[in-house]
């Protein structure tokens, strides 16, 4: 059976009726998402229990941060500082187009039995067969792939292409072209293929100033798409989590997570 049809939706990190303080969310906030000309943005990275407020701890970004230019090249962060409640870094955006700023984590672990001894291995998926014996007894393989990102555009927006690994958003409506009162369509893929039936949660920031989370739950269609009309300008948190088994000879339990911060502009 095809991979994307074997996934089942996992429980989300927090329930709709629960206060946000019971869950910690990781997020990035750029100082600007739209620039008229080349320049700098500053990005905050934090984990908190109030969306977009620094209330818990900084996010560690040194090993898994990427800043991708419109042509696919990498840009090095500048002036990185990790404080008690947030990590801050600058990014120079030198040419027109859309930049992707994010954190990517991928890990794979395997355990199996050799006689009475338990063996363990951790490494990239491409090296699994070389390091784990074929037909290993009591084999358990688990993979986690997570992506946290945001976007900034200089001048005219440019296309965003998926990497083909894990759960990703492929915008139909550009993420730096979102306006309150307008509908936006966003597509999701798993390993580059449309991800149908995935539950996507959308929530406006400023949760510390209201009694209810006001989280919206949407489910992707057969093409992996959702459509949502933004009720007001501001920063929004978008999150999806999928887990399940791949089937086949390498029956891998996977947990895929995607998070994005999007800015909705006033009309």
In summary, what is this structure?
The protein has 267 residues and is mainly β.
SSE blueprint:
Layout: H1 3-6, E1 7-9, E2 25-30, E3 34-35, E4 39-48, E5 57-58, E6 65-68, E7 78-82, E8 87-93, E9 97-114, E10 117-122, H2 128-131, E11 137-154, E12 167-171, E13 183-190, E14 193-194, E15 199-204, E16 216-219, E17 225-229, E18 234-245, E19 252-264
Parallel strand pairs: 3-11, 11-19
Antiparallel strand pairs: 1-18, 2-4, 4-5, 4-8, 6-9, 7-8, 9-10, 9-11, 12-13, 13-14, 13-17, 15-16, 15-18, 18-19
Give helix % range: under 10%
Per CATH, the superfamily is: Macroglobulin (MG2) domain
CATH fold node name: Immunoglobulin-like
Strands, count: 19
Structural class determined from secondary elements? mainly beta
CATH domain class: Mainly Beta
Core attributes:
single chain; 267 residues; mainly beta; Immunoglobulin-like; ten-stranded mixed beta sheet; five-stranded antiparallel beta sheet; 2 helices; 51% strand; globular
Model description:
This protein is mainly beta and 267 residues long. It has one domain (3-107, 146-264): Macroglobulin (MG2) domain (Immunoglobulin-like, Sandwich). It is built from two helices and 19 strands. It has helices at 3-6, 128-131; strands at residues 7-9, 25-30, 34-35, 39-48, 57-58, 65-68, 78-82, 87-93, 97-114, 117-122, 137-154, 167-171, 183-190, 193-194, 199-204, 216-219, 225-229, 234-245, 252-264. Strands 1, 3, 6, 9, 10, 11, 15, 16, 18 and 19 form a ten-stranded mixed sheet that branches. Strands 2, 4, 5, 7 and 8 form a five-stranded antiparallel sheet that branches. The radius of gyration is 20 Å and the shape is globular.
